[in-house]
Amino acid sequence: MNQNTLDKNPQGLVLFVDMNSFFASCEQQVNYWLRGRPVGVCVYTGKFGCVIAPSIEAKKRGIKLGLRLNEAMQICPDLVPLETHPTRYREFHQKIIKVLRKYCDDVIPKSIDEAVMNLTNYKLVYKDPEKLARQIKTDIRNEAGDWLKCSIGIAPNAFLAKLATDLQKPDGLVKIMPENIDDVLSKLQLTDLPGIADAMALRLRRYGINTPLQLRYTPPEKIRMACHSIVGEHWHYRLNFSEVDMWAHGYKSMQAMRQISRAQRQSLRILEELFTSLCMTLERRMVKQRVFCNEIYFMASYENGFRWGEKIKTGKPVQDGTELMQLIRVRMKKFQEANHCEPIINKEMTAMGITVNAFIPDEMVQLELFENNIRKNTLRRVVYDIKEKFGFEKMIKASELSEEHVLKDVIGFGSVKDLHDDLGNIFD
Ligand SMILES: [Mg+2]
């Protein structure tokens, strides 16, 4: 890819909308008394509850995300602690997305409080994207809620547009284009880039890449070596206006499938293990892509050429491999009983496949299932992050994840913070 042509003539146009202090602003939207006051939204409002979403006013008073309430009240005695109302946030989210869809049908919600508008095919329609951004801000106030503010970033790709929203908060409007990108990057550190954490910054520094500006002008092959991964090259493309992130949640479905040899199908235990491994493979992929599925399709074929397949609507978003297994088993059992037939998993099976689809981003799910599942879902992610880091080959059984005492030990609020951190929750 020729860097110079990219620089001069970027193809894309992306507008990134990031709602400011979203949960707290929603609370202030529905309760006039809360407006202008420091508000701390918490899952629990007891002494040791922690603030997962400070309002703009609370942030100004030094209330940081993840702070325990007893400390927060010392720092800011007139802080108003409030419990979360996930349904409320979802409703506002939908209203906001509706506003954005008025202007372009290519709107991808990235999380509960963020969305990407791909305006690449609308460049002739919106010749002045800043004007559009200001119009969107006004529309959000008029049609979603007059207390709701957002930061909007405009750039040739989703990554830079996201970065632009981080540069001005609240109520920001920042454009990153070929004419100002070097200036913007020269004021930033590596870890200011969404997706670059300390470990990654260290790897880059070892190769003499110390700043975002240097990263932009480092050849892709060198970044790849520094990162020990093809993913390294993406950093070059991101900073040179190519699109590598837009489709992060663009998966329509994921499939895991196994052919079963004659020897394998002699053993029911092996068949069960294959079934388990398919479910765990899909769990791993969904965790990696940060999605949950709402639909499962199970398919089996047999020596005599017959096939059995069933679509299962999960009824709630699912990511956990053991939950996938349970849902499929329940359906098999129902079918077996209704038809008085032998088990679906039997010694004549020649192939078995599972497809999951109808995805939603994990952050949306964590909201829906807040109280009960936030720890479990976080832990699953943490386990995979650790495994990725250390390259563990062996799959940790999902049943180990559901042990309540294990969860309590492992999850401090650093990881709860990660769930709600503005950075790095999109760009894997
Ligand atoms: Mg936000």
Can you summarize the main beta sheet? 5 strands, mixed
Cα distance, first to last residue?
A: 22 Å
Query: Using only CA atoms, what is the Rg?
Result: 24 Å
- The strand order across the widest sheet is 5-6-1-7-8
**Percent helix among the residues?**
40-55%
Mean pLDDT: 83
CATH third-tier fold name of the domain at 254-373 = Dna Ligase, domain 1
Q: Flag low-confidence runs.
A: 1-6, 369-373, 391-428
CATH architecture field of the domain at 254-373: 2-Layer Sandwich
Quantity of strands, as a count: 12
List the total number of helices. 19
- The shape, in one word, is globular
What small molecules does the structure contain?
magnesium ion
Strand content: 15-25%
CATH superfamily of the domain at 254-373: DNA polymerase, Y-family, little finger domain
Q: Structural class of the helices, strands and pairings?
A: alpha+beta
Assigned CATH class of the domain at 254-373: Alpha Beta
Keywords:
428 residues; alpha+beta; DNA polymerase, domain 1; Dna Ligase, domain 1; four-stranded antiparallel β-sheet; disordered N terminus; disordered C terminus; binds magnesium ion
Task: Outline the structure in words.
Helices cover about 45% and strands about 20% of the residues. It is an alpha+beta fold. Among the domains are: about 185-240, DNA polymerase, domain 1 (Orthogonal Bundle), CATH 1.10.150; about 255-375, DNA polymerase, Y-family, little finger domain (Dna Ligase, domain 1, 2-Layer Sandwich). Residues about 1-5, about 370-375 and about 390-428 have low confidence and may be disordered. The structure holds magnesium ion. Magnesium ion binds near residues 18, 20, 22, 113 and 422.
